[in-house]
C-alpha cells in the first residue's frame, strides 16, 4: 500500500467513524438506577436517578441539594454555567425547593470523597409526580 | 504512612510513565475508588503525577510512543536515540527537569501572587486566547498546503474530542482517544517502517548548562502560562515556543522537559490560588481536600520535590542497562507488544465502544506524519471541547448532538 492510499483509507475511517459516533449519540441513554444502588463503581457513568430534594441551596450561582430516596441520599450539583442554560430552557434550578420530586439524568462524580450527580444537559432535571 | 504513600506513588508513576498509553490519570481514577484513606491518597496521587513526569520520557525516547504531554518530545528524543545518543537524551531530560524544578519552586511565591490577577484578567477572554493559541499552532506549519493539512487533522481530532467528551459513550473517553491518536498510530507507523535502533553511546556525557539554560528558563515560563489556561498543555506550549525560537532537537527536548515540570508545579499553584484544577492529579487533590491553603500547597510542593528527585536518581541508574537492552530488541515485536497491551487495556476499561474510538483516533493519528505536519495538531481532541466550553456552547452542542 502506498502513502496516498494509506492517507485516503485513514481519512475514510476517521470521517466515517466520526459520522457513526455523531449518528449514534442520540441513542446514548442513561442507566436507570435507584439512589441506593449508587457506588464508586458508577463513577463517570451516565445514570438516571429519581428522588426528593432536600437541603436545596445556592452559592455563587451554583445550586446544590440532596437527592433522596426513602433511605439514601446523593448530592445533586448544578454548576452556574449549566444553571443559566437550564433556566433558559424551561426549568429554573433557582426555583427548586426542598420536597420537589425530580428525575435527573447526569454523570456520577466524586467530590471530597462523596458521590454526586451532575446534570448532563440543560433539560436533564425534570420535576415529576 | 506518608513514606509508604510516597513510595507507592513513585512506583505508580514509574509504571504509568513506562507503559505507553497508560496515563497517570487512569491510575489516579482507579485509586480514587479504592477506598484508601484520603490523607494517604493525596500523597500517592501527587507523587504519582510527579514521578510520571520523569518516567514518561522513556517510552517517548525509546519507543517513539508518547502520551499527550510528551507528544512533541518524540521527534527530538527518538531522533537522538536513532543517532545512538539515547544516553544524552535521558541525561538531558533529567538535568532539565531538575533545574526546572529548582527555578519553578524558587519563583512560586511570585507567580502564586500573580496568578489570581492574571486569571481574573484572562477569564472573560479565554475563548479568544484559546482561539489565538490554536491559530498560532496551525500557523507554525508555515506553508499554505501544510496549514490546510494541519487544519484537517485539528478539525477531525477536534470533532472526535467534542463528541466523546460531551456524549457519555464511555466513562474514560480520553484513554482511547489519546492512545489512538498518539500511541497506537505511532506503533502502527513504526511497524510499517521497521526502524532499527543502533548501538548506543554509553560514555559519560557533559551537559553544558549555558547551551540549555535559556530553554529551561523559557520552559518554566511557558509551563506557568499553560498551568493557568484550561485545555492547553505541555505539547501546545512547546509548539508555541517554536513560533519564536528556532529550536534544535536537543534544546527542544530540554524545553519540553522543563515545561512539564513547571506545568506540574504551577498547576497545583493554580488550584491553591484560583481554585481551578488543570490536571487529573489536581482534580483528585481538590476532590480529596476541598480547598488548598498555602501550607497545604507547601506540603504538595515538598512531595513533588522528593518524588522528582527520587525518580531522576532511578532514571539515571536505569539509563545504561535500558540503552543496552533496547538495541537488542526487535522493533517489530516491541511495537506489536505495545499494540496488544493498549488494545487489552482499552478493551478492559472502556469496552468495544472504547476500541472503536481508539480505532478512529488512530486513523487520525497516522495522518500527520504522512502529510508532513506535526502530530501535536491531534491535540484538537482537547482544544476543541475547551473552545466549545468557553464559547458557552456546551449545552447547545449537546442538544444538537443528542437531541
Please tell me about this protein's structure:
The complex is a heterodimer of chains A (129) and B (403). Chain A has 129 residues and is an alpha+beta fold. Chain A has one domain (31-127): OB fold (Dihydrolipoamide Acetyltransferase, E2P) (Beta Barrel). Chain A contains two helices and seven strands, in the order αββββαβββ. A five-stranded mixed barrel of chain A has the order 2-3-4-6-5. Chain A starts with a helix and ends with a strand. The mean pLDDT of chain A is 89. Helix content of chain B is 78%, strand content 0%. In chain B, helix 5 runs antiparallel to helix 6, helix 6 packs parallel to helix 12 and helix 11 packs across helix 12. The termini of chain B are far apart. The chains are: A alpha+beta (129), B mainly alpha (403). Chain A binds chain B through residues 3, 6-7, 9-11, 13-15, 17-18, 20-22, 25-26, 28, 40-41, 43-46, 81-82, 85, 89, 107, 110-113, 120-123, and chain B through 29, 32-33, 35, 38, 156, 159-160, 163-164, 167-169, 171-172, 287-290, 356-357, 359-360, 363-364, 366-367, 370-371, 392, 394-395, 398-399, 401-403.
Short description:
The complex is a heterodimer of chains A (129) and B (403). With 129 residues, chain A is an alpha+beta fold.
